[in-house]
Sequence to fold (150 residues):
Amino acid sequence: MLALGAAFFYAIAATIAKKLTGVPPHLIALIQVLVGSLMLAPLADFRVLATGAKGWALMIALGIVHTGLMYILLYSAIQKLPTNLAGALSFIYPIVAILVDFFSFGHPLHLAGATAILFAAAGSILGWSFKLRGIERHASSGKKHKILNR
Fold:
């Protein structure tokens, strides 16, 4: 349920970012990070903050590079790419996470999941569709009409 909720709210954020063509991507990223920080602040345990210069340097790098820069690039691309291509590229995130998990922590690869993700991305980009038996879509009207099977 959490994954479905995250996907739903990501789609809403991407749709809003797509419509904000006059707003710079770094401003969209800043607003999203600030709103997210305020929403998550009540759940944070401030007793276990980073200690020492190395811990704070890693936290700052994580916040600025891995979050800030990534969001700026993401929203810049979303505003410029066609919606179907931006959606298809979002399928790549889980594969990158699986690869990073494998190379960083040695967890086994889940090739079936990665294959399904790549298949979905290819279908999205290439416009694949599933046709149900007995249903035909008319391009001119956009309505579905039942076809009688004889």
The mean pLDDT is 79. The CA atoms of residues 12 and 18 lie 10 Å apart. The first strand starts at residue 135 and ends at 137.
